[in-house]
Amino acid sequence: MDDAKINEYLTAIFNNVLIIEEASLRSSRFSDVTIKEMHTIDVIGENKDATPSDVARTLMVTLGTVTTSLNNLERKGYIERIRSTKDRRVVHLYLTKKGRLVYRLHQRFHHAMVRQITEGMDEEEYKVMKKGLLNLYNFLEDLK
């Protein structure tokens, strides 16, 4: 497989994951959540005691963009903001019961995707795939 084909596959995979994620949200009982809001929910779900700044840094967006998303998610009942008792200037973000449910469902999609990718691979194939993904990850991290 040549570089052009690898690039074609990577681009198609990236686009298809976003399209499928958005379509699955639209057809679920969580149709009021956008894919960008789902990514915000993911960051909060993965980082206990996340702050708005943590979310902005992880998603590489401005604090203003995160604030808008958090306002929408709070209004829809997916997150709650709680002021720190140690420093009243700090706000921690937590998923509500509804937020935890959509987070877990989204995680299931990603786990199923990983299982599908790795199904039937022997140990050497798995190691090679991990090495390639790590190289891609590091390349993208360096561009941040």
Automatic annotation (TrEMBL):
Domain of life, source organism: Bacteria
Domain spans labelled HTH marR-type: 1-138
Pfam family name, one: MarR_2
Keyword Transcription regulation attached: yes
Matches recorded under InterPro entries: HTH_MarR-typ (IPR000835), WH-like_DNA-bd_sf (IPR036388), WH_DNA-bd_sf (IPR036390)
Keywords for this protein: DNA-binding, Transcription, Transcription regulation
GO molecular function terms noted in the UniProt entry: DNA binding; DNA-binding transcription factor activity
PANTHER family given in the database record: TRANSCRIPTIONAL REGULATOR, MARR, TRANSCRIPTIONAL REPRESSOR OF EMRAB OPERON
Protein name per the record: MarR family transcriptional regulator
